[in-house]
Amino acid sequence: MVITDYIMLLHKRASIKPGSTGREIAYKLMSTGLPGLPVVNESDEVIGVVTAFDLLGNIREGVDLSEIAAEKIMSKEPKTADMKTSAEELIEIMLENNFTMIPVVKDRKLVGIIDRTSLLNAYVEPVLHRYFGEHK
Fold first, then answer.
1. For the domain that residue 41 is a member of, what is the CATH number?
2. Cα–Cα distance, 101 to 117 (Å, whole number)
3. Distance between CA atoms of 53 and 134, rounded to whole angstroms?
4. d(Cα 129, Cα 99) in Å, to the nearest integer?
């Protein structure tokens, strides 16, 4: 299975800028339900990723989320996928690296996000449609 609009969440607006505060990031994570967000530069190129774990780690250390920027806590040089990356390869990358999401890029620019829930959904949902279709 290759990445399609069916699997990929088109969350360009869910990306964050390097100067976004931890508090802003937390609000975006909560509003989108995503486990992490890509950090993009002025050209929409992915330069990092911030996850809920990054925020929680900083909270544990006593950091005020209003006082820390994405560029200070992001994972730099994140792994990305492109539109031709197979679902099987995405699963492998996620499992090997304990990733919760992977940014999808085209020509180095962010076009969407694959998170583990949307990937799992791509495998489960067709079965659910058949199941519920049979039991009307």
1. 3.10.580.10
2. 9
3. 41
4. 28
- Does residue 15 register a pLDDT over 90? yes
The answer on pLDDT for 5 being more than 70 is no
Q: Domain limits at 17? A: 12-134
Q: What is the pTM of this model?
A: 0.84
> What residue type is assigned to position 119 of the chain?
L
Closest CA to 34 of 129, 117, 109: 117
Q: Report the alpha-carbon distance of residue 96 to residue 122 in Å, rounded.
A: 20
d(C-alpha 33, C-alpha 130), whole Å: 27
Query: Based on the structure, what is the number of domains in the chain?
Result: 1
CA-wise closest residue to 111 among 20, 37, 9, 25? 9
- Judged by DSSP in three states, 108 sits in coil
Phi-psi category of 80—alpha, beta or left, where left has phi over 0 and alpha has psi -120 to 50? Answer: beta
- Across the range 61-74, mean pLDDT stands at 97
**Phi/psi of residue 76, nearest 5 degrees:** -85, 155
- Better pLDDT: 110 or 125: 110
Query: Does 62 fall in a domain?
Result: yes
